[in-house]
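Exercise (ungraded).
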Amino acid sequence: MITLSINGHNHDVTAEPDTPLLYVLRDDLQMNGAKYGCGLGQCGACTVMIDGHAAFSCLTPIALLPGRAIKTIEGLGTATSLNPVQRAFIEEQAAQCGYCTAGMVMRAQALLEHNPNPDDNTIRDAMMPNLCRCGTHTRVLKAVKRAAQSMNRASL
Amino acid sequence: MTLRIRLAGIVAIVIALPVMVSCAALVWQPAMPPVTPPKAAQFSPEVIARGAEMAAIGDCAVCHTASHAQPYAGGRRIPTPFGLITATNITPDVESGVGNWSEAAFRRAMRDGVDDQGRFLYPAMPYPHFTQATDQDITALYAFLMTRQPVHAEMPPNELPLPLKLRPVMAGWNLLFFKAQPWRDDPKQSAEWNRGAYLATAIGHCAACHTPINALGGEVSSKPYAGGEVEGWDAPALQAASSAAKPWTVEELTDYLRTGLSDQHGAAGGPMVDVTRELATVPEQDVRAIATYFVSQMPKSPTVPPAPKENESVAAGSAVFAGACAGCHAPNAPMVQRGAPSLALSSVVNAPSPRDAIQTILHGLPWREGKTGPYMPPFEAVLNNQQLTDLVRYIRARFSGGPAWADVEAQTQNARQNGGT
């Protein structure tokens, strides 16, 4: 049995140690925010945060995770109380089908926690691992910028 | 007593003066008179095209372009064992670039490592190699650079410790390690081999990374292509010590240099990625010539024993491999089925040191924008040092017939602290 700390709560998991975190989140814990896209670390739909860094949960076996702080989109905000990144994505309408959005939001959150004032190139570099097949990338970039501004205003 | 002091003084002056004069002559280089920026129409399209080819083989843009900036406008900080050196703006901007450099000034920079103002360049600029470039190729490079879009871009200063900050010190370095000599073909070799040797030596400066350097940053000329270290990565040996699991063929090496991937050896990583991006743009015959030159020096039979079937003695990394790596690297994984090489063939997995395996796992392989090619996601965020060490040991034991790497733990810590590309 492996104990995972997800969004501040401990979960005892009986899955095999080589099971990717994504499968445990979706199949065992019913946290369906992170999505299965490619299973190969090429699309970013499964992005979560591990110890504050964005990571592909499809390529992260749970054997690596005892003692690590995992954060998923379920840990950011709720439908009635959105986190600033989630709110910015809605305000910029930075989604079409929405399949990539949870991963995009988590990668943006990880960026802004490390760098509250990223310039455009830094945002582009940081968001590069995450793909949107609908083509909302320019709106995603705007949303990350907006989120940074609103987080900075809130902390003044 | 006073007489003896006076005599000693005179003797000292008599000895020191010629030394000082010859040193001054060595250290003092005249400024070259500025010229009106030449017009594009002065250069023929054929010469510019040849210059473009030489610029790509010489990787000019790799160092002389900062991230997200205009090509050739400089600004990239080059990490060296001695400190950071900023690659300069080589677009034809008059104020901040080379806009009013004459061809003679450009030739002197390439051949002697002295800029238009008479200042010594640091050998991070590979003038010890370019000194062998032909007049024709230097003229072509000049034509190519002078017809780029001028970009105004001021450079951040170098970050070097005090003695090296003083550029005249480089005159001493040149005395020790720099030999200006024209290129000479080897009459015993074919025309293609000689073409490749020239391109690899005088233009591509492959030895700048693939030959070890001494404590003062000079290439160890007695060990050509014995393998070097650059930006935290091992540049593998390109001669008898090559650790390829299968001997390279000219076909395979040509393919690798142009695409960044060989289905018999693995993918380019770290600083080599940019080299292969540049070589993708030049005529295939040039790359084939370079491959011909290197394959002639590499082993004709395997140098590492074949990989063991399965090594169960290193178990700690197996679950991590199964969950993080097997999706692409297991023998039956879709990527391998479609032609990517097995890790058993990988030059990185069979290398004498774990450094490149560690760097590749930490940083992955970047996308090749707009092209198909090798890609690997980075695992820096998910693996701690112990987990990475276990994984690297497991991969070596399972896929390579070479001996277990001795210093995985130390190399892991080192790569994590000092980063990589």
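Further reading is listed at the end of the chapter. For now, observe: Chain A has a mean pLDDT of 96. Residues 51 and 148 of chain A are 20 Å apart (CA to CA).
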